User: What shape does this take?
Amino acid sequence: MATEKSAMDPNLEELPDLRNSKGHGFLCFQHDGLYLFVLPPQIMKGRRNTDTVKTVTEAELKDDDIIICAYPKCGTHWLWEVIEMLISGTIKYQKDVKETRMMEFIFKEGIEAVPPPRVFNTHLPLRMLPKQVVEKKVKCIQIMRNPKDACVSFFNHCRNLVEPQGYEGDFAEFTEAFLSGKLPFGSYSTYLLTWKAEVAASQEFPVLNLFYEEMKFDPVKSVKDIAKFLRLKSTDQFCEEVAAACSFKKMKKVDEEMKGDLPFKIWKDGSDGTFYRKGEIGDWKNWFTVAENEKFDQIWNEKMKDSGFEFTYTPV
Assistant: This one.
């Protein structure tokens, strides 16, 4: 990985080798026990990845900031649009991509530059977020998705990324990395367990826990729950309008036709790269073999034993 290291970040001391026996893996750096994507030079501008991500904890927040917290591919984009509509009181889609509000992507200076009202998003654990999240009791909304669909969605996302971030391995290899944590943002089980423990250690910390599947089953109820948590006086009719405007089909179309571009290329040429792929519950059944599913269950259930997390794996 020496060539990749010098090309992506000449100041990075050493990159962990996350390649498997077939030579497939991810280009990541490690900070505070977590693997994170090495960001492109256009974003870093000569800075070290570790130095920039450290600045996130020192960012100044406002009392009315809102943070969406989630593991990758669990519904962050979707939830962001819902919250922005509820806050603005209008059915209006965001022209920016959610990465323009992603804490580990814009760092301290970017976080502080966002004008209010501010809805941020992150895949980081609580300990790596701004210290003021806990100090000011900033409202956080955690959205969770069943791990099998999250795994499938994350795989399709990674395999469509440009080099050197793109993943070249097959689904079975990716699943192994997903369970072992040898991928950006670590294993989903560790993320959930860490989040639960860190929130529990922060007294009277306002968190709303949502499930992706529940938002699919009953979007109007979910929108109402979010409005209530944020103490917004949204009418039932408006919540219904928000739920309808933020259906997966409409969100996918908006992403294709309206969203602005990132400051660098993200998807491979000729790929079907998109932040909105299928959005279905139970698509994992089209990817896992019987043996792979049994192995996944065994490992996942052991890691999450007595954790209290319960997921929905099939549509009602």
